[in-house]
Amino acid sequence: MRYIFGRVAVYSYTFFIFIFSILPVQGPAGLPFFDKVTHFFSYAALSFLVVNALLLRKGTHSSAIAFSYAFCVGLTIEIVQLFIPYRSFQLSDIATNGLGSFVGILLKII
Question: Domain count of the chain?
Fold first, then answer.
């Protein structure tokens, strides 16, 4: 039962990230790095949720799977943003997503 709850949390949070990544949203005007901070913490939380969900199952390589899942979600969203006129594809967002994903895994290990 706990594993199912963990999966529901992961998929719900993934949906939340996807929706907010395709909406036309502007960050605060005085904070130029607000976008990167948001990416970092969003994907750190996502990989942390994935690791927690996978640790409830025996015999998985939870860290590698969690990083791969979070990184692929971020990459997919950036590719989708190529086709949305009011959004933009940025390699720096992909790098920040990857860094956040890695830190989220480290938080679970520590």
Answer: 1
